[in-house]
Design brief:
Blueprint: H1 4-149, H2 156-167
Length: 169
């Protein structure tokens, strides 16, 4: 067993050397990659830096205009809202006035129609009443005269009734 000990020591030494070489290779590879990444970052920064500078200048130049546009838009919105509210109020008042005028016109027309109706009734009574009375008087006189003459017949009695009915309204 003691003869195996130097063999294990040699194998362990070789494994450690191999690990050291591997770690050194990894270190150098990482260092080389780090330099390449730094170089690419510097190139990118060199290309992006002028663009960012231009954008920053543009934003600084445009910022007051944008602020002014936003303020103007807010003012326009406020004015539009005020005008819409005013228009709504005016239209509402106009509709209320129109409604009141329609009610008033309806009352006037209703009163006028009632007056015309009453006037027509009074005219009918004033004209037809005396006409019926005169007509009844004339019929009475005719009937009386016929009675006194003796020309009255029983067959004419129904005819006289129909004539009287046509005069009755």
């Amino acid at each position: 067993m003691e003869s195996w000990l130097p063999f294990f020591v040699i194998v362990a030494s070789l494994a450690m050397v191999l690990q050291a070489v591997t770690l050194a290779a990894i270190y150098f590879q990482l260092r080389r990659q780090s330099r390449r990444v730094e170089q690419m970052a510097q190139e990118l920064q060199a290309k992006v830096s002028p663009i960012l500078s231009r954008i920053q200048l543009l934003v600084e130049e445009v910022h007051p205009q944008i602020s002014s546009m936003v303020a103007d838009a807010a003012h326009i919105t406020h004015l539009a809202r005020t005008q819409v509210q005013h228009a709504d109020r005016v239209v509402g008042e106009a509709i209320d006035r129109l409604r009141m005028q329609l009610v008033h016109a309806d009352q006037i027309l209703t009163g006028a129609l009632e007056t015309v109706e009453e006037t027509g009734l009074h005219i009918r009574r004033a004209i037809l009443g005396p006409v019926q009375s005169v007509s009844a008087l004339v019929r009475g006189i005719q009937t009386g005269l016929e009675f006194f003459r003796g020309n009255r017949r029983r067959t004419e009695a129904p005819q006289a009734e129909t004539q009287d009915e046509s005069l009755f309204i």
